[in-house]
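Lab notebook, bench 4. Still working through the backlog of constructs that have no structural model yet. Next entry is a single chain of 345 residues. Request: give me the structure tokens for it.
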Amino acid sequence: MNDDPAPSVLPGSLFRRLRIKSRQVMLLNALDEHRNLRRAAAAIHTTQPAATVLLQQLEDGLGVTLFTRHTRGMEPTVFGEVMIRYARGVLHDLEYAGDEMAALASGAAGLVRIGSVMGATPILLTQALARFKAGNPRVRISLQVDTSDLLMPALLRGDVDVVLGRLPDQFYDEDLAIEQLAGEPMSVVARPGHPLFALAEITLLDLVAQTWVLHPLGSPMRRRVEQALQHASLAQPPDIVETSSILATTSLLEASDMISVVPLDVGLHYAKYGLLAILPVQLPISMANLGIITRKKKDPSPALKLFLGALRDSIRDRKAEPPVVQATTQRTAAKTDGSARRRSL
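Model written out:
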């Protein structure tokens, strides 16, 4: 049970009545890092007595204790944790403001920082960026391609402005705004000429016996592969190389008989250039729907609004593709080896 008193200032009027100084924000961040007042004071280039006064003024204004003092250091209370998150957000926003102003000073018309999962990159994101840059050539773009379990914390920290991805399992944050998109079909890929293509039909046991290149433990795609094998009452592949890098994945597959699981759009992209081939099997994997994810409490910049508009336009265009285009896409996946038969596992 929490014995800390409730704040003496109502939350709705807290920051209108409390004048928080920039050095207090810096001190909160330093205390979170060092958990020691002397080291935190040194980190923000002030004296320990001055840091004590800054913290005391903040606690008096809030009417709560932010840190409990111990012989070995300081620990934040539940109220301290809230203020630390606030301080982190302020500092990240200031860093972003500096980056955006630097971009403007160099002649750019703004900065948009995008996080995207691999599956959305070769088609959906590429089309959206091409559309956006055609009309906004002076906007600087920063793109981070990673797994959703890494992108979501980056969004909450303020390191990216928007994520094109999916919420990891059991992940929830009320500060997130999510626009749901369609799910991603998955594909099993290998190098062209892989021995598996010589089989009349491929079983799940044939796949398990191979060396797999998979995303690291904890990522949504890795969990879906594990769930598919569990559903078939099979053990995990005994031989796994873990990486979230598509460059490492394609390089390993080209140079060996390893196999991997990638979104269908990614598989089609590399199959088009003959770098990979899609195996004629379907794993029973259902990936969570993609989404456009932003922070509710963060006002989008003009440049971000324009990019989101281009992204939504690209999504609408793709939905409006005639059935013949969609059918062609599926046939392309099936052409990897004409002699093998597709089988649902």
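Notes after review: The two ends are 50 Å apart (CA to CA). Residues 78-105 form the longest helix (28 residues). Flag for follow-up if needed.
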